[in-house]
Amino acid sequence: MKSNQPIGIFDSGIGGLTVAKAVKEVLPDESIIYFGDTAHLPYGDKSTAAIQAYSVRIAEMLLTQKCKVILIACNSASSAAYDLVIEYVGKKAKVFDVINPTIDFIRENHQDDTIGLIGTKQTVSAGVYKKKIQELNQSIKFRSLATPLLVPMIEEGIYDDEISRNVIAKYLGDPILNDIKSLILGCTHYPIIKSQILNHYSSHKSEVEIIDSANTVANALKSFLEFHQLKNREKKSMDKFLVSDFTESFEMTTKTFFGKEVHLERIPIWDELS
Ligand code: DGL
């Protein structure tokens, strides 16, 4: 691994740009190669086997792009395929998912809490967060809820009006999430509605701390690069944003997730398989 190699970040689609944005905020000099598997999204409703096959092929592509790090930005892919991607990549790059840095954050900050998780059906049913939190501390109470309407709602640009407030209130009002002290945003899209989630809790006079997995992984990556002296020392970064299927609407939604619109380039990584 060399310091001037890029950081590969992949997701099922455009939502993982929230993670790329968090990474760029703490590591502005790093070059990013982002890949959104728009041909296969959403991952949240796919089987574990399908997500594993996609993730390994994407890791292979990112290795050919000489990435020093492969960051699985998607919570659904982190739940389904982290171990397999590590096995595949071996020593050729460092692999990050979004779950383990979040567990480390909980280890340091939230040992006695009742912790909630919202995410896709895949992330919740895979139970990886639950298992790792229980391994960490048996006395932490863990509650999780699949919130599948949130991804399409945010992608449609509906995240700060009456409809979105009602959907958010319906999910967060679910009795399973009663009494939580902190809530893990276990999906690439949810940082976009962080303030709406906080507003929901403050209007119900409850204090719930938000644990944003995009921030936890960005900070973990920064510490790793610093510790191993792998931070890019060349002061010019070159970012690339790749997708497996291109539409103008994907390109337009990049602004929601990355803060500014970016140009998407189609890379035909599935063509030989179809
Ligand atoms: N990127 C996915 C995740 O973080 C959400 C979108 C999807 O279901 O593909 O779980």
Summarize this structure as a short list of keywords or feature phrases.
single chain, Rossmann fold, 16% strand, 274 residues, 10 strands, alpha/beta, 2 domains, binds D-glutamic acid, four-stranded parallel beta sheet, six-stranded parallel beta sheet
Question: Mind explaining what this structure looks like?
Answer:
The protein is an alpha/beta fold and 274 residues long. It folds into 2 domains: 7-97 and 215-273, Rossmann fold (3-Layer(aba) Sandwich), CATH 3.40.50.1860; 100-213, Rossmann fold (3-Layer(aba) Sandwich), CATH 3.40.50.1860. The protein is built from 11 helices and 10 strands. Strand 3 (69-72), helix 3 and strand 4 form a beta-alpha-beta unit. Helix 1 (17-26) crosses helix 10, helix 2 crosses helix 3 and helix 4 (99-109) packs parallel to helix 6 (128-136). The radius of gyration is 18 Å and the shape is globular. The protein starts with 6 loop residues before the first strand and ends in an 8-residue tail after the last strand. The mean pLDDT is 95. It binds D-glutamic acid.
